[in-house]
Amino acid sequence: MFKVHPVPPGRLPALLRAMPKTELHIHIEGSLEPELIFALAQRNGIALPYASVEELRQAYAFTNLQSFLDIYYAGASVLIHEQDFYDMAWAYLTRAAADHVVHAEIFFDPQTHTARGVAMETVVHGLHRACVDAKAKLGVSAALILCFLRHLSEQDAFETLEQALPLRDKFIGVGLDSGEVGNPPEKFARVFARCRALGLHLVAHAGEEGPPAYVWAALDVLKVERIDHGVQSAKDPALMARLAHDRIALTVCPLSNLKLCVFPTLAAHNLGALLDAGLVATVNSDDPAYFGGYLNENFTQTFAATHLGTQQAYALARNSIDASFAPDADKQAWLHRLHEVFESFVEHDY
Ligand code: ADE
Ligand code: ZN
């Protein structure tokens, strides 16, 4: 058992930034910065309904999940060629490396692109090539998770899966995202059963805006291994006990929750309460280009606004490694590095 020594509060932000961590909840289309949207629009001859980067950024004032999704899907419309998908993913992965992300499990939304006539191979090949380069050139391991859009039909999800299966070796699992309320997990029971039979990892967004019943259904009907967001679980003590008992990780995204008005302030966020209840909570950036911060900003802003300290920093980094789908040997190496970083902070001060 690793002993965590508290570091002085003034050193905590530096520790949060330096500690090795994984990112398990990042939508690659949500890492598309306004500058890259404009550059790709120009490269591909696409007209945007915004005159400038500043004007686009000013539109990033959201009241709930749907108000964000409308702008997020519009932003993704500049992605046409394999190189566009590569450039987007490479930009994220270099940014993640700077935040000491050692491993990223990256969501992508193929239906957003195939519906516009972009081929599945174009999307997957571009993203996968960036993942391969990230390992070789940045030392960051990266894997892809294909997300089904839950506002679309079960039939559409099945067709998307069929299109993706020839590329089965280029993604490790499937997820479920987009507008949650009114699109319960049960709608995708058969698609997830098929993915499970194929040996894919399973995750789903649940309990972001939707009720605890959606988290129960993600667990019991879809049989997911992690819950994305899941913050509404705190409303249901029996669900909290289940998540803790089964060590089902929650991929929590504090700045996303703030920007989409799930919590009124970061100080009011329930991340600390989830950890106190024994849940395997992790911190993630969701859609960093839209929510004002990559992974380290999520950590430092949340810790600055709450009473979280060194113990919670360690728990969150450790949870992120434990809850990843990476091989055990990689997890052991990252844990070793995590312990070295925590010890180096203690040795400097005492
Ligand atoms: N797609 C991108 N970000 C999302 C989020 N936070 N919730 C649901 N779908 C999303
Ligand atoms: Zn998300």
Helix content: 40-55%
Beginning-to-end CA distance, first to last residue: 21 Å
Biggest beta sheet summary: 8 strands, parallel
Low-pLDDT residue spans? none
Describe the strand arrangement of the main beta sheet, using strand numbers: 1-2-3-4-5-6-7-8
Oligomer: single chain
Number of distinct helices: 17
Order of helices and strands: HEHHHHEHHEHEHEHEHEHHEHHHH
The CATH homologous superfamily is named Metal-dependent hydrolases
Under the CATH scheme, which architecture would be assigned?
A: Alpha-Beta Barrel
Radius of gyration: 19 Å
Structural class: alpha/beta
Number of domains: 1
Tell me the number of strands.
Answer: 8
Mean pLDDT figure: 97
Q: Per the principal axes of the C-alpha atoms, what is the gross shape? A: globular
Q: Which ligands appear in the coordinates?
A: adenine, zinc ion
Which CATH C-level class is it?
Answer: Alpha Beta
Question: How would you sum up this structure, described in words?
Answer:
With about 350 residues, the chain is an alpha/beta fold. The radius of gyration is 19 Å and the shape is globular. Strands 1-2-3-4-5-6-7-8 form an 8-stranded parallel β-sheet. Helix 1 packs antiparallel against helix 15. The chain contains 17 helices and 8 strands. The structure holds adenine and zinc ion. Zinc ion (ZN) binds next to strand 1. Adenine binds next to helix 4.
